[in-house]
Design a protein that fits this description.
This protein has helices at about 1-10, 15-25, 80-85, 105-115, 120-145, 145-155, 165-175, 175-185; strands spanning about 25-30, 35-40, 45-50, 55-60, 65-70, 75, 90-95, 100-105. The chain folds into two domains: about 1-145, Sandwich (Jelly Rolls); about 145-188, no CATH class. It is α+β, with helices and mostly antiparallel strands. The strands form two sheets. It has a four-stranded antiparallel beta sheet with strand order 1-8-3-6. The chain starts with a helix and ends with a helix. The protein contains eight helices and eight strands. The protein is globular. InterPro entries: cNMP-bd_dom (IPR000595), cNMP-bd_dom_sf (IPR018490), RmlC-like_jellyroll (IPR014710). Pfam families: cNMP_binding. This is cAMP-binding domain of CRP or a regulatory subunit of cAMP-dependent protein kinases.
């Protein structure tokens, strides 16, 4: 829980009283590697802070899984559109590695907004963080080559990318695994 408190302390000045209320609503959950945390058709009930691990956002198809995002340690993860609308998710969240999440429910987050001084600001900072990540991804999809997308992922999380199967990385950057192998050979 220390990681999430440190994360918030960098964003806002949170009082001990507000932290006590917020932290009392957090639930620690551990997911083993390959667990589906959110399944297509389920409603996202939690906003989560990932203490450790890697999560993949994906849309499974019969012959190919489309990976469109990753979340890494010390970041927020959620089927955020489903969380906000309380409608079923159109994608899965899958643990690529063992993951530890600190989760807060939709209702408990609403309680935080209503009963703490800093709640709205925390919510805004979380939303901004998820939005910026989404916008960077969209811009990258439009402008960057597959090689640049791969190099950026290497820069973002060099030690963690080793834990992501190459087929997921290839899907994320929009190419087949064989093409990724060629890019990796060129970089070395």
């Amino acid at each position: 829980m220390l990681n999430i408190k440190n994360f918030f302390s960098e964003l806002v000045d949170i009082s001990d009283e507000d932290w006590a209320i917020f932290s009392s609503k957090l639930i620690r959950r551990c997911f083993p590697k390959k667990s589906v945390i959110l399944r297509i058709g389920e409603r996202e009930n939690f906003l989560s802070f990932m203490e450790n691990g890697i999560i993949r956002y994906n849309i499974p198809k019969l012959d190919y899984d489309f990976t469109f995002g990753f979340a890494f340690s010390n970041s927020f993860v959620s089927g955020y559109d489903s969380f906000l609308t309380q409608q079923p998710s159109n994608y899965n969240l899958e643990a690529i590695t063992d993951c530890t999440l600190w989760q807060i429910s939709y209702d408990d987050l609403d309680y935080i907004y209503e009963n703490t001084i800093i709640g709205d600001r925390i919510g805004r900072k979380i939303a901004e963080s998820l939005y910026v990540k989404k916008m960077k991804r969209e811009q990258s999809l439009l402008e960057d080559s597959a090689q640049k997308k791969y190099e950026d992922l290497l820069k973002e999380q060099p030690e963690l990318i080793l834990n992501i199967p190459l087929k997921y990385i290839a899907s994320y950057i929009g190419i087949r695994p064989q093409s990724l192998s060629r890019i990796r050979k060129q970089i070395k």
